[in-house]
Amino acid sequence: MKRGKFVVMSKMKTITINLSIVILIATAAGIWLLQSSDVKETTGKTAEALEAPATAAAIASSSPVSTVNGQKSFADLLRQYGSLPLADAHNHDASGGAYNRMMDTWKRDAMDRVVLFGDVSERSAIATDATAWNAYVDRPDFFTPYFSGFDLHDKSSLDVVRTNLEKGYFGLGEIAAASTFSPVVSRVEWKANDPMDGFLPKIYDICAEYKAPILLHIDPPNGAVIDKLEEALDAHPKTIFIFGHANAFNSPENVKKLLEKYSNLYADFFAGFTVLDPASSNKLEDFIPVMKQFPDRFMLSSDSGYGVKSEEAAIEAMYRVMDALNDPNLARKIAYDNLDAIIRSAPATRTQKEAILKQDPSRDVSKLSKLEAGLILWGKSK
């Protein structure tokens, strides 16, 4: 009986409480309705609009934008373009093992691939080439190793180039094909006088054989050394040449003329220089028309933040290029697809195929690319 009485009393209390709540809600609603007419008059928004929950798109569109020069914040750019693949086509972080310190940054900044090497055309590059290779073996899905540790004036350079490409390196770079004004590259011991100096012509032939790109440092980006670059482009039409930081101290018109004349030339666009470096005499918008004219011939790079505030600042500049293009499909091509197509075009080498067959004699290796072979040999799922 006590239990039944408790239930009845409890129900009565519940009814009383609920009735009180209804009265309170009705009162509050009346006050709100009176106020809503004022809101509608002062804001032009209906009560329904004020009540509607914010969608994800609305939140994104209302996210704060940097007030510095009216630019979007880096966070805004990451939200807008972070889902697009992004590759850094020119990175020196094998030097000093700096790539280890960048892993969290690359993850945070949605980087999908890094072309990794270290020192440029000098003896110390032999060690940084090895560092780039070790990074690749550890993460073949992320790193693409290049090398530059050979004396291009010595015939032995031909053996080094062939051996490394056979091993699985994807390209050569950064190679000092000419340098007069760079405070770093002008002093390296194995630099060329021009892009046709030493054994470079024969090295270009080996690159063509392996479908391996060669990334060249050339300064100044005009005059006699560019004449020699054109000579190389003419004489080696099957070689993939990448003009390193082609926009640095160079005009859009000069880049355009070269791309118009030579289909085997690609432009590595060091975004940080044009976007951030006061020494740049051109603005980003000056290069956008050239990028749109040659959408298959540009790639983006950080150059490890050389000469700018930081490497991450240089990555942010890459995103600003994507934003300035104002076309997601075009942004994807320049940010990733153009480089990816070059990397995927290289066939697996004899050395790679033999190593794979030792692991699995039944595997068909006849049509493997170098990229696929590397993932089989070094990937986590091997």
Describe this protein's structure.
With 382 residues, this protein is of the alpha/beta class. The chain folds into 2 domains: 2-52; 84-345, Alpha-Beta Barrel (TIM Barrel). The protein is 52% helix and 10% strand. It has 16 helices and 8 strands. The protein has helices at residues 2-43, 47-51, 56-61, 74-81, 99-108, 125-138, 156-167, 200-210, 224-235, 252-261, 271-276, 284-293, 311-325, 328-345, 350-359, 370-378, and strands at residues 87-91, 113-116, 143-147, 171-178, 214-218, 241-243, 265-270, 298-301. An 8-stranded parallel β-sheet has the order 1-2-3-4-5-6-7-8. Helix 4 (74-81) crosses helix 13 and helix 13 (311-325) crosses helix 14. It starts with a helix and ends with a helix. It comes from Paenibacillus sedimenti. InterPro entries: Metal_Hydrolase. This is Amidohydrolase family protein.
Classify the helix fraction into a percent range: 40-55%
Average pLDDT number = 86
Largest beta sheet: strand ordering: 1-2-3-4-5-6-7-8
Derived from helix and strand composition plus strand pairing, the structural class reads: alpha/beta
- Fill in the CATH topology of the largest domain: TIM Barrel
Shape, principal axes of CA atoms: globular
- DSSP strand content: 5-15%
Number of strands: 8
List the domain count as a whole number. 2
Number of helical regions = 16
Organism: Paenibacillus sedimenti
Protein name: Amidohydrolase family protein
InterPro entries: Metal_Hydrolase
